[in-house]
Amino acid sequence: MSQEKTVSTDNGVDVSVVVPLYNEKESLSELMRGIDDALGKRGKSYEVVFVDDGSVDGSYDEVKTLREAYGSGKVKAIRFSRNCGKSAALSAGIEYAGGGTVITMDADLQDDPAAIPEMLAKLEEGWDVVSGWKKVRHDPLGKTFPSKIWNAMTSMAAGLKLHDFNCGFKAYRAGAAKRLEIYGDRHRYLPALAHWDGCRVTEIAVPHHARKFGKSKYGAWRMFNGAMDMLTLLFLKRYMKSPMHFFGILGMLLIAVGAGVLGYFGVMWALTGAMRLRPLTLLAIGAMVMGVQFISIGLIGEMITNTMQARRQYSVLERL
């Protein structure tokens, strides 16, 4: 379920570039020059929204220096009081962005701003979201191989064929970007979320460079977190409005299995007069108890869903 979000695109800026960052001081100046070459020198009005996700290396001071050099109209910033994660940074930056088009990219110089004009041209063909595809990656095998498996599984689960869901380099029409609900680790699934919301999503190959400064901020746990988030999203997509359809089926199945086993032992007891407590009997009773619990969870879910019916069940694409 998605709600309508306010889309602010009235400040006369063509493109908003949202850059989440965490301890990337060394790369910001070069990144800003690349963005200015790609947009400012090609006649596009733009703003860069830097979102400092709790950096401790002086990154925010560097952003203020860039603001003085390029002007307050081109460089804007949001600073978090602590490290909140990439999804939170993207959500804040997109909400603050005022351009008719929103570009998101990482601050580590692995994304090349020179690809921005091509992404904008792809949007002009009628697409709502253009996702970058790091076709040639300069990352170790320990990152590229699991990524291929994860992307293939995500494509099947989302019903959207993309090679690289997790690439941070993306272009959106502002309305499509601002309708996205981004939290947790949902930044990994933004193309899927946009697709489920009715947006037209495509991808183009973009250059990918080796990291020049610092080190990756992601550890081995991100694969586990990503898998859990995908399960959550799939559940919400299918059963958000009718949780009883999920928990009720499981509950009835468990009750049926438990009742069948207990019924069999009841018949044997009636025929033979012998009744022994077997492990299977305890499992059958446990299955019935769990079945009742699942149905109860489903009923509670339905009650919660019913109380939320006052919230909008639609998302607005356009108004006249």
Task: Provide structural commentary.
With 320 residues, this protein is of the alpha/beta class. It folds into 2 domains: 15-238, Spore Coat Polysaccharide Biosynthesis Protein SpsA, Chain A (Alpha-Beta Complex), CATH 3.90.550; 241-307. The protein has helices at residues 25-38, 59-70, 86-96, 116-124, 141-158, 174-178, 190-196, 221-239, 244-272, 279-307; strands at residues 15-21, 46-52, 75-79, 101-104, 129-133, 170-173, 201-205. It is elongated.
* Order of H and E elements: EHEHEHEHEHEHHEHHH
Shape: elongated
- SS class: alpha/beta
Strands in their spatial order, largest beta sheet: 3-2-1-4-6-5-7
Helical residues, percent: 40-55%
Number of strands: 7
- In the CATH scheme, the class of the largest domain would be Alpha Beta
Give the low-confidence spans.
1-9
Individual helix count: 10
What's the overall average pLDDT, rounded?
83
CATH homologous superfamily assignment of the largest domain:
Spore Coat Polysaccharide Biosynthesis Protein SpsA, Chain A
The amount of beta strand, in percent, is 5-15%
Write out key terms for the chains shown.
alpha/beta, 320 residues, disordered N terminus, Spore Coat Polysaccharide Biosynthesis Protein SpsA, Chain A
Short description:
The chain has 320 residues and is α/β, with parallel strands linked by helices. The chain is built from 10 helices and 7 strands.
